[in-house]
Design brief:
With 235 residues, this protein is of the alpha+beta class. The chain is 37% helix and 21% strand. It has seven helices and eight strands; from the N terminus they run βββββααααβββααα. The protein has a five-stranded antiparallel sheet with strand order 3-2-1-4-5. β1 and β2 form a beta hairpin.
Length: 235
């Protein structure tokens, strides 16, 4: 069956001198492995398969094994730009996706969220320091582990162990305090475009703790430490 879909390049592993196995997060089919040949040949395809790039791929869908693309092109309007800080944020998001995606398991809401986020990075996102907070919160929502950020949790704090309003039984180290919850709510709603570095770092840390506990138990986000260095930079 010949199909066409948008896809995000998630991972690329060298196969031979001129080919690679590329994991594509497709809109309709989830994560699929592709054998890409001719990366450095006459029709150089190298730039199409940089992790985080958004492409449109036409291929014969098989029930198992590696796919071979018939056509691959950049999605209209996409012009991948490299900025060191943007690249590090991009790698953080890609690591998170690599932990949660499973082959041939459609995740259309997660795809749309990821596409919008990578597009912002590609366009040189002006609100880069708060983008990880936005993405992590939305990531929880679309993976079925949404946090109960409401008037009550903003007033009393949010317990990341339960994902709901903190109570007298909540462990202090597991709580996002009311002031940080209020800032997070303002970030998510788009009410503010910046936030103090300390609060950004705290929110990212707590959201990652929540994700590692509820979404990817037993796994750790290795690139968090470098991302947190970015979170400390002033806006």
């Amino acid at each position: 069956m010949l199909v066409k879909t948008e896809a995000i390049v998630v991972k690329r592993t060298p196969y031979t001198d001129h080919s690679a196995v590329v994991k594509l997060f497709t809109r309709e089919f989830g994560l699929l492995p592709f054998l890409i040949q001719g990366l450095h040949g006459k029709h150089n395809k190298n730039s199409l398969f940089q992790p985080g790039t958004l492409v449109e791929v036409v291929f014969h869908k098989q029930n198992k094994g590696m796919m071979r693309p018939k056509e691959v092109s950049l999605v209209s309007g996409w012009g991948y730009s490299h900025y060191p800080i943007h690249d590090q944020v991009r790698w953080f998001f890609l690591e998170l996706l690599s932990h949660v995606l499973h082959e041939e398991q459609p995740e259309e809401l997660l795809f749309e969220t990821s596409k919008a986020t990578f597009q912002k990075l590609n366009d040189g996102c002006k609100e880069l320091p708060i983008l990880p907070v936005q993405f992590l919160f939305e990531f929880c929502e679309v993976t079925g582990h949404g946090l109960q950020l409401n008037a009550e949790s903003i007033a009393l704090g949010l317990d990341i162990l339960s994902g709901s309003t903190a109570t007298s039984r909540s462990i202090p180290s597991n709580i996002i305090d009311p002031s940080a919850c209020e800032v997070m709510a303002q970030i998510i709603s788009g009410e503010i475009k910046s936030a103090p570095a300390g609060i950004r770092k705290l929110l990212v840390s707590k959201l990652v703790d929540y994700i590692e506990t509820h979404v990817i138990p037993g796994k750790t986000i290795q690139s968090l430490e470098i991302l947190q260095l970015i979170m400390q930079e002033p806006q």
